[in-house]
Design a protein that fits this description.
mainly alpha; 3 helices; elongated
Length: 77
């Protein structure tokens, strides 16, 4: 595998990470009760599930920022 192929794999991985992080993060932040019911878990205080949603969204934003900076500066990661 050449270095160019490795960069493409990394960029695709960053985009997949960002999308998954946004989906789960917004799910935990806004509809945490529904996710607990779908999972079949024990009822918990939803406040304990909302702050991890924000953290997961922040991880998605970080992955997106790394991807966009690499495109802007044409840096091969």
């Amino acid at each position: 595998m050449s270095q160019n192929d490795d960069v493409k794999v990394l960029k695709v991985t960053l985009i997949i990470l960002a999308v998954i992080s946004f989906v789960y993060g917004f799910g935990l932040l806004f509809i945490s009760g529904i996710l607990v019911k779908l999972d079949g878990g024990n009822p918990v205080e939803f406040g304990w599930l909302r702050w991890p949603g924000g953290v997961i969204i922040a991880l998605g934003i970080g992955a997106l920022m790394v991807f966009l900076v690499s495109l802007k500066n044409r840096v091969s990661l």
